Amino acid sequence: MERKKSKLSGFFDIVNKMEDFVLAVLVIGMIVVIILQILGRITGHPFPWTEESSRYLFLWMMFVALAAGFNRCESSRVTLFLQLGPKWLKKLSEFLYALIVLGFFVFMFVCGMQVVQQQVQFHETGTAILIPMWIIGICQPIGAVLGFIGTLQSFMEYRDKVRIGDKETEKMKALENEG
After folding, report:
1. Tens-place pLDDT, residues 31-56
2. Whole-number Å distance between alpha carbons of 165 and 85
3. 123-126-129-132 Cα dihedral, nearest 10 degrees
4. What span, in angstroms and rounded, lies between the C-alpha atoms of 116 and 122?
5. Crossing angle for the helix pair 139-157 and 9-43, to the nearest 10 degrees
6. Is the Cβ–Cβ distance between 91 and 163 less than 8 Å?
7. Please, where are the H alpha helices in 3-86?
8. Assign residue 148 a region: left if phi > 0, alpha if psi is -120 to 50, beta otherwise?
């Protein structure tokens, strides 16, 4: 599906590139840390910080990747039963999709901020890596904000992907475009 540019396209491009860069750094970081962990165990001198740091990198990666999946409406949805239903159900499902997804990200942000506030208040630190835990915990509210932005991008620029259309009609259009 082709992207329809909006007034916020430049902003969305910056956010998408930032997410891609952060995810690449996190994946490379995880690979390096896990290789060091394996080498340490093979040599009999394991690094105590590798297990904890791979866990923290993984948490950051999952929350940023969760958000990135919504940028182009690439998150999973079950649409099989909606295809069989009437047109009004398809329209209602788009509204419910937006309401539930955006509500989820608001909930995720609020709960994440509560956890971060608690981590700051109690001066929590990691056990092997003595970094403040709020640096790890902040990934949840950041992921929520990025997910909210990504969902807005889906509705503004990838509306055809969001729309629950008639699959038979879509197949016919695709065949006509090929011929």
Report:
1. 999 999 999 999 999 999 999 999 99
2. 11
3. -30
4. 10
5. 140
6. no
7. 9-43, 48-68, 80-84
8. alpha
